[in-house]
Design brief:
The complex is a heterotetramer of chains A (about 230), B (about 325), C (about 550) and D (about 100). With about 230 residues, chain A is mainly α. Chain A has a domain of about 140 residues: Four Helix Bundle (Hemerythrin (Met), subunit A) (Up-down Bundle). Chain A is built from six helices and no strands. In chain A, α3 packs antiparallel against α4, α3 packs antiparallel against α6 and α5 packs antiparallel against α6. The longest helix of chain A is centred in the last third of the chain and has 37 residues. Chain A is elongated. The termini of chain A are far apart. Chain B is α+β, with helices and mostly antiparallel strands and about 325 residues long. Chain B has two domains: about 190 residues, Cupredoxins -  blue copper proteins (Immunoglobulin-like, Sandwich); about 90 residues, Cytochrome Bc1 Complex, Chain D, domain 2 (Orthogonal Bundle). Chain B is elongated. Chain C is mainly alpha-helical. Chain C has a single domain, classed as Up-down Bundle (Cytochrome C Oxidase, Chain A), CATH 1.20.210. Chain C is built from 18 helices and no strands. In chain C, α3 packs antiparallel against α18, α12 packs antiparallel against α13 and α17 runs antiparallel to α18. Chain D is about 70% helix and about 0% strand. Chain D is built from three helices and no strands. The chains are: A mainly alpha (about 230), B alpha+beta (about 325), C mainly alpha (about 550), D mainly alpha (about 100).
């Protein structure tokens, strides 16, 4: 190890690492540390949720009860399936099967897009009445236009349901944003896999994008019951 | 207080002396360690200064004993400070039962105060010396902080909730009242004074000016004007719970929980009636959010507080839980 | 450590700069703006935070100028509120938090552990760009309508009532937060994976330990303030109601989330400074550090316990009395590791060989000011005295003693110590000492009176004040003038040194540590040979005598 | 970090377990367990998340460092929630309550 004075970058090995093992270790650890950061990033929202869910139990149950749990359930299955395809993609990479990596990654992207498409319609349903398109009451976007009449709650609980919907949009919005960031990265890596850049010895990019995607899945695993199921009983 | 260059703030409340005693204890600790360690460092720096470039001091790696000593001694000192401070803090948050109740509403950029007898003041509060004064503090807009340095008293005025502070003035005089939480443009103008008077002077002061309506009377008027009276009747025939004698007692709620009917609960029940409905009643009361001001709320609470159970009668108070 | 490299022929009288080093590795703009060399990125950061420091300093001048007169007639209240907010936001988010980690840390960590670069050089560059974009947003807000919320952004003032450009500034701070996160992430991974052979955890310089602890706070704390400030922006722009009591929100919740990061943020500022002091005090005492592992572990303890104390900023907010007690007790716990450090530094000097060169002058200054800053913290963690002192000038004085007296003294000490390494040249020792003394005197004159002002009851963020406070305020402003001049000198003689300074040689202080075993300035790839570490840190007893030539 | 190659069957097994748990949480939500509702929902979610971390994310085969990173992230999140809650839960235990 001590002999090399800045070896020219060759293949995937960057100049400042001694060997691929070190580079891989650094990259994977880096992604885990990033995920720890993400836990606290979403953590701020989950803490906010915890405080208000305790304070405004009734409003949260009413707000949650109005969300369509079947949509949430469907999306949960879609996202879990996309985690499976992602795991299979990483698996194929470890075995050095480039074509299969591409297939699994594209399947992941497809499922991710389905999730976002469903989300689009779910959001639309709540946003449309605010702009007169869906006509009539039921605008659930927090702010001046918020209208809780569809929730059938007492007048004084209505403002508190607004907090629920603020959290609903902030949490699912941030989650969706993470997916929107993830999809192009997966496509980029699928492209690199198609070009045959990865081997059983070096497929760390596939591995770390996998970690990211699984983390996004975990966030949803918590969002689903907290947002969709609290008002069902 | 109008000294040109004061070095110590005035002590004008029962609390001030206690806070200062602790303050000067910590000052002593601070000075001892600051001067002590600085002197040791200067001494070392001179005594062991480098005399030649060939100096090679002997190595000393550390000492577990010393580490223990300078961990445990500071720990002991800070535990003492913590306990002492907590004791004072508890006193500060526990107003005596006989305190006279003054309500404080912060508003950009003034303090609105009201005496138990109904007199209103802005940016000025007259109080008798020696009498405990309980402050119920809230705000109409942003967070303010009610700060009287001479009393060592500070409490934030937070919109949407009541904070409680109290003092017992010990010295006649006039003292600064500051807003200590930044609240916008005229933050530094949101100042006033607390005038501490002899009890007889205070009575004279109360007697001066137009005869005020006490908050209880104002609350009673509001109670009628807002039609509260139609549901909350003194007999159990109304659609809402009977309010006589309710204040300060434990109430069982429809959810099965129990709450104490204090200021915060009454306030919440006026603004968000459906949140904590009394067991056995329907959530039919409309919200009064936006219909009553902070000061009107305080009057309503004062009125409800004053409602006693008529003697000789047993009013079916909503299931009592204590 | 590796004695072979130390023994390189080094002409004792005339030092020369090495023929090739990272500074002359390229002169076009691309070689700077697209560099992935941690040393060049450190220089980029050095330039940008210096600009921010000057800007923040100018705002400080305006504050002290306004407070010369009690009626505040020097400027309008609106202006004053914008000025102190700008001072706070710039100094906290754009100077102090990146200060030592992004410059000295970036430059030195790979050198100190014998690595060629940080683990993620491109992410390192990205963090600088993110910082610049965040700064641009915030500066835009400050110069277009200004910001008048104070750096703390308390709700509902910031979300509903402020008549200033809050959303832009909030977004700027949100963005800048990620710069800090990326720097921390890079440090953590680098320390774990890039250490040279033989560089075990307990042989690492304490500077590296301090940055490792700092990075933990950056990674686990910053995201919370980022999301909080984002919610403020959402509330401002779209009327979400998280913290607005009129919509059912709780303004106290904002304070919890805000201080969860912003209290530990103080340790982001002070821990690296403590790391610098550990390096300097050993070098100028020519001794090993006393109680190495206690200092290393106290850094970690500060990083962790520092997260448990935030609500001591909220004792008068009406929070639960019981919860306040928990936080007060935990606050007192965090005092212990700081005390351990000070005692160990003092013990390090015992029977040393102490020289009074400029960096050591800053160390003396640091310890003195940090003692006062730390000990006055005892008043504010205390439930009994905090009620009177919070939100007064006592707080202002206390945190300036920590953030300026502590963090900036350490920063300047570090800059003076590693200057010959970074630029390969010496500066005027005489001017260096004079400025260190001036800064120390000016600082105390500025902020000691403020403790008294606070105890007397002058609230912070006051544009005008009762007349009896004027004497102390004038004294404080006069001190600020001296402090300002003190800061001016280093910028002059260091700029002079950069061009005309005498070449310093590889190891002008006779210091130990891998960074002194390479040339000054170091080559682009840091080391000709990957160093192999055989000694503990600060093995001054093992230094070959001939290598120690001043 | 792991070059550990797991059989694809493990992944499918984990996937099926996740689906089953999702169904369970939906079914459980239609019963009212009172204050236990949240605990049941979160318990199932934590189980699911653990499965994903251990198997899909290979934490099970990774070194102690990875686990330390994950756990510190989670631990600091709990610090945030519990200490914040310590205020909200005990606020009503006012010293001044009824007078």
């Amino acid at each position: 190890m001590p002999e090399a004075s800045a070896p020219p970058a060759q293949g995937p090995l960057a100049h400042h690492f001694a060997n691929l093992k070190q580079q891989k270790h650094a990259a994977v650890l880096g992604m885990w540390v990033f995920i720890a950061q993400e836990v606290l990033f979403f953590g701020g929202l989950f803490a906010t949720y915890a405080v208000y869910a305790m304070k405004y139990k009734e409003a949260f149950e009413a707000g949650s009860g109005h969300l369509n749990w079947k949509i949430g359930f469907f999306n949960t299955l879609v996202l879990i399936a996309s985690s499976l395809t992602m795991a299979m993609g990483v698996h194929s990479a470890a075995l050095g099967r480039s074509r299969r990596i591409v297939g699994w990654l594209l399947a992941t992207v497809f499922l991710g897009t389905v999730f976002l498409g469903v989300k689009y319609f779910e959001y639309g349903e709540k946003i449309a009445p605010c702009f007169g398109m869906g006509a009539g009451p039921g605008c659930l976007v927090p702010g001046q236009l918020f209208d809780a009449s569809v929730l059938h709650v007492a007048a004084d609980v209505a403002p508190e349901t607004q907090i629920f919907y603020s959290l609903y949009f902030a949490m699912t919005g941030l989650h969706a944003l993470h997916m929107i960031v993830g999809i192009p990265i997966i496509l980029w890596i699928a492209h690199a896999a198609w070009k045959g850049r990865y081997s059983p010895a070096w497929h760390t990019p596939v591995e770390i994008v996998g970690l990211y995607w699984h983390f996004v899945d975990i966030i949803w695993i918590f969002l689903f019951p907290l947002l969709y199921l609290m008002g069902r009983h | 207080m109008n000294q040109a260059f004061p070095l110590l703030p005035e002590q004008a409340s029962a609390q001030a002396g206690e806070v200062d005693a602790l303050f000067f204890f910590i000052v002593a600790v601070t000075i001892f360690f600051t001067i002590g360690i600085s002197l040791v460092i200067l001494f070392f720096a001179v005594k062991y200064r480098r005399r030649s470039d060939e100096d090679r001091p002997k190595e000393i790696h550390g000492s577990l004993l010393l580490e223990m000593v300078w961990t445990i001694i500071p720990l002991g000192i800070v535990i003492l400070m913590f306990a002492w401070g907590s004791k004072i803090y508890f006193q500060m948050n526990r107003p005596p039962d006989d305190a006279m109740n003054v309500s404080v509403v912060g508003k950009r950029w003034m303090w609105k105060l009201q005496h138990p007898t109904g007199q209103r003041e802005i940016n000025e509060l007259h109080v008798p010396v020696g009498r405990a004064v309980k402050l119920t503090i809230t705000s109409e807009d942003v967070i303010h902080s009610f700060f009287v340095p001479a009393f060592r008293l500070k409490k934030d005025a937070v919109p949407g909730r009541y904070n409680v502070g109290w003092f017992r003035a010990t010295k006649v005089g006039s003292y600064h009242l500051f807003c200590a939480e930044y609240c916008g443009t005229e933050h530094s103008k949101m100042i006033g004074k607390i005038v501490v008077m002899e009890p007889e002077d205070y009575q004279t002061w109360l007697a001066g000016g137009p005869p005020p309506e006490s908050p209880v009377v104002q609350g009673e008027q509001l109670f009628t004007e807002l039609n509260c009276i139609t549901c909350h009747r003194p007999d159990s025939a109304g659609r809402g719970p009977v309010l006589n004698g309710i204040f300060g007692r434990g109430i069982r709620l429809a959810s099965g929980d129990t709450v104490v009917a204090d200021e915060a609960y009454v306030r919440e029940s006026i603004l968000n009636p459906a949140t904590k409905v009394v067991a056995g009643y329907q959530p039919v009361m409309p919200t009064y959010q936006g219909l009553v001001s902070e000061e009107q709320l305080i009057a309503l609470i004062a009125y409800i507080k004053s409602l006693q159970i008529p003697s000789g009668e047993t009013v079916p108070v909503p299931e009592e839980a204590e | 450590m590796n004695q072979g490299t130390e023994a390189k022929p080094m002409t004792p009288e005339v030092n020369t700069l090495p023929k090739e080093h990272y500074l002359n590795a390229g002169y076009d703009w691309k070689s700077w703006l697209l560099t992935t060399d941690h040393k060049r990125i450190a220089i980029l950061y050095l330039i940008s935070i210096s600009v921010m420091f000057i800007l923040g300093g100018l705002y400080a001048v305006l504050i002290r100028w306004n407070l010369l007169v009690p009626d505040g007639s020097h400027m309008s209240a609106e202006t004053y509120n914008r000025v102190f907010t700008a001072h706070g936001v710039i100094m906290v988010f754009f100077f102090l938090i990146p200060s030592i980690p992004a410059t000295l840390g970036n430059f030195l960590i790979p050198l100190m552990i014998g690595a060629r670069d940080l683990a993620f050089p491109r992410i390192n560059l990205l963090s600088w760009y993110v910082y610049v974009i965040g700064a641009a947003f915030t500066l835009f807000s400050l110069f277009s309508g200004g910001l008048d919320t104070g750096w703390t952004f308390y709700t509902p003032y910031s979300t509903v009532f402020a008549q200033s450009n809050v959303a832009f500034a909030a977004i700027g701070i949100f963005i800048a937060g990620f710069s800090s996160i990326l720097t921390g992430l890079n440090f953590i991974v680098t320390v774990h994976t890039m250490r040279a052979p033989g560089m075990t955890w307990f042989r690492m310089p304490l500077f590296v330990w301090a940055h490792y602890a700092t990075a933990i706070i950056q990674i686990l704390g910053t995201p919370v303030v980022a999301i909080t400030i984002l919610l403020v922006a959402l509330e401002r722009l779209f009327h979400f109601g998280f913290f607005d009591p009129a919509r059912g929100g709780d303004p106290i919740l904002f304070q919890h989330l805000f201080w969860f990061y912003s209290h530990p943020a103080v340790y982001i500022m002070i821990l690296p400074s403590m790391g610098v002091v550990s390096e300097l005090i050993t070098c100028f005492s020519r001794k090993r550090i006393f109680g190495y592992s206690f200092i290393a572990m106290s850094s970690m303890a500060i990083a962790v316990i520092g997260f448990l104390v935030w609500a001591h900023h909220m004792f008068v907010s009406g929070m639960s009395v019981y919860s306040a007690m928990i936080f007060s007790a935990l606050t007192y716990l965090v005092a212990i590791p700081s005390a351990i450090k000070v005692f160990n530094w003092t013990a390090t000097m015992f029977r040393g060989s102490i020289s009074w060169e400029t960096p050591m002058m800053y160390v003396f200054g640091f310890i003195g000011l940090f003692l006062i800053g730390g000990l006055t913290g005892l008043f504010l963690g205390n439930l009994g005295t905090d009620v009177h002192l919070t939100d007064t000038y006592f707080i202002v004085a206390h945190f300036h003693y920590i953030m300026v007296g502590g963090a900036i003294m350490g920063y300047l000490g570090g800059i003076h110590f590693w200057w010959p390494k970074i630029f390969g040249r010496k500066y005027s020792e005489w001017w260096g000492r004079i400025s260190a003394v001036l800064i120390f005197v000016g600082f105390n004159m500025t902020f000691l009176p403020q403790f008294l002002l606070g105890y007397l009851g002058m609230p912070r963020r006051y544009h005008a004040y009762p007349e009896e406070f004027q004497v102390l305020n004038v004294l404080s402003s006069a001190g600020a003038l001296i402090l300002g001049i003190g800061y001016l000198f280093p910028s002059l003689y260091l700029a002079h040194s950069m061009v005309k300074g005498e070449p310093a040689g590889n190891n002008p202080w006779g210091a130990r540590g891998l960074e002194w075993e390479t040339t000054s300035p170091p080559p682009a790839h840091n080391f000709d040979q990957t160093p192999v570490v055989e000694d503990e840190a600060y093995a001054y007893d093992k230094a070959p005598k001939e290598a120690v030539v001043a | 970090m792991s070059d550990h190659i797991v059989s694809w069957k493990v992944y499918v097994g984990v996937f099926l377990a996740l689906v089953a748990l999702t169904v369970t949480t939906v079914v459980a939500a239609s019963y009212d367990f009172g204050p236990l509702n949240v605990i049941v929902a979160l318990g199932i979610a934590i189980t699911k998340a653990t499965l994903v971390v251990l198997f899909f994310m290979h934490a099970r085969y990774a070194g102690g460092l990875t686990r330390l990173v994950v756990l510190s992230g989670v631990a600091f999140f709990f610090i945030l929630v519990f200490l914040t809650m310590s205020d909200y839960v005990t606020r009503s235990w006012s010293l001044t309550g009824a007078s």
